[in-house]
């Protein structure tokens, strides 16, 4: 049976999935749901967009005791955007479980008040979780399930020590699940140090990169790059597009210049307030803006339907970042287009990416 009835899930969750148009489990859901339901620890390697979120949310919801008003489950996420996305997915699945997202940029005292109100699932970023732990406003001593989501990003941002501190505040008897697009040695060490005989699940991304995405490269110079971008936008006519830049400063500079030229554009990076970030994402999801200019870290957890084009204004610094960026388009079987702009100095990086994905990028003339 290739539907959710094959798992030991409550009928109301299966019905909620069906109402949301989800009837067939993805590969990672088929592998991970039974393992987590049986109480096993899991290390799962899968790209964003594989359906991994439901693979741990469904078993987690099944384990929540509605009569127990302590924190029973904890999800640690690297960014505020991902924490919010996970919270909204949880809210969609369950109306009667008390949950709270804790992250920087929101009033900590408001979160403290909410934590007093019988919260059963907490979704948080490492920094703000530790803040609450130090204030003794959060008690993780009854956590029976811990999920570390996008673990490689936590490592990349420099949160590894914080994550270890958080793990130590939970009972050693807890069940642990770790999800990551890549499993570098530091993540492996962390996993085996804190997990009990973890089951490894690896979902191969098809062809290393998503096959539905048409990938091109545009050769230009740093001086002519912005002109080349404008021409490519005109030629490709995106419905929704994301433009990736290397730094916050470059995001803001490009945003100012495109906005002045009349483009429907906004920016997303770490210097924005949480309220502003949420407003930007809402405008983008509602297609009130056509182009979103973002840094890599800000884009984690950025899952928007209808993104037709990704533009790598600055070439990614490694293969995994390239795969992650272009994975923002071509979701759910739709076609997508990814265009990378390179200056002469970027040719070695391009060769490394092409080698990593096992494919030569087609050149596009502007």
UniProtKB/TrEMBL annotation:
One Pfam family matching this protein: DEAD
Every Helicase ATP-binding domain range: 33-201
Molecular function terms from GO: ATP binding; hydrolase activity; nucleic acid binding; RNA helicase activity
Family to which this protein belongs: Belongs to the DEAD box helicase family.
DEAD-box RNA helicase Q domain segment(s): 2-30
Protein name: DEAD/DEAH box helicase
Lineage top rank: taxon: Bacteria
Example of a GO cellular component annotation carried by this entry: cytosol
Domain Helicase C-terminal: 212-366
Record-linked PROSITE patterns: HELICASE_ATP_BIND_1, HELICASE_CTER, Q_MOTIF
Keywords per UniProt: ATP-binding, Helicase, Hydrolase, Nucleotide-binding
Short sequence motif Q motif: positions: 2-30
Organism, scientific name: Pontibacillus yanchengensis
């Amino acid at each position: 049976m290739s539907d959710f009835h094959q798992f030991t899930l409550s009928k109301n969750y299966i019905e909620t999935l069906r109402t949301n148009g989800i009837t067939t489990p993805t590969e990672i859901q088929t592998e991970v749901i039974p393992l987590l339901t049986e109480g096993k620890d899991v290390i799962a390697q899968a790209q964003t967009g594989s359906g991994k979120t439901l693979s741990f949310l469904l078993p987690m919801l099944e384990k929540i005791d509605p009569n127990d008003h302590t924190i029973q489950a904890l999800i640690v996420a690297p960014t505020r955007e991902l924490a919010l996305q996970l919270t909204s997915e949880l809210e969609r699945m369950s109306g009667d479980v008390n949950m709270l997202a804790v992250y920087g940029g929101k009033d900590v005292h408001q979160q403290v008040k909410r934590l007093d109100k019988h919260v059963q699932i907490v979704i948080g970023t490492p920094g703000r979780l530790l803040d609450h732990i130090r204030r003794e406003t959060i008690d993780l001593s009854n956590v029976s399930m811990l999920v570390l989501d996008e673990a490689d990003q936590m490592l990349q941002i420099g949160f590894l020590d914080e994550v270890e501190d958080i793990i130590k505040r939970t009972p050693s008897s807890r069940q642990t699940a770790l999800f990551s697009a890549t499993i570098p040695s530091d993540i492996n060490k962390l996993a085996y140090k804190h997990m009990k005989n973890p089951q490894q699940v690896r979902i191969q991304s098809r062809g290393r990169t998503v096959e539905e995405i048409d990938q091109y490269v545009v050769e230009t110079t740093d001086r002519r790059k912005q002109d080349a971008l404008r021409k490519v936008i005109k030629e490709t006519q995106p419905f929704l597009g994301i433009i990736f830049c290397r730094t916050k400063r470059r995001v803001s500079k490009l945003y100012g210049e495109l906005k002045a030229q009349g483009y429907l554009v906004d920016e997303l990076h770490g210097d924005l307030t949480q309220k502003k970030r949420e407003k930007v994402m809402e405008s983008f999801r509602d297609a009130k803006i056509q182009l979103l200019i973002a840094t890599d870290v800000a884009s984690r957890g950025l899952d928007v339907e209808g993104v037709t084009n990704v533009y790598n204004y600055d070439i990614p610094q490694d293969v995994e970042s390239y795969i992650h960026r272009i994975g923002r388009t071509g979701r759910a079987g739709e076609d997508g287009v990814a265009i990378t702009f390179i200056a002469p100095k970027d040719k070695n990086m391009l060769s490394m990416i092409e080698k990593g994905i096992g494919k030569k990028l087609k050149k596009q003339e502007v």
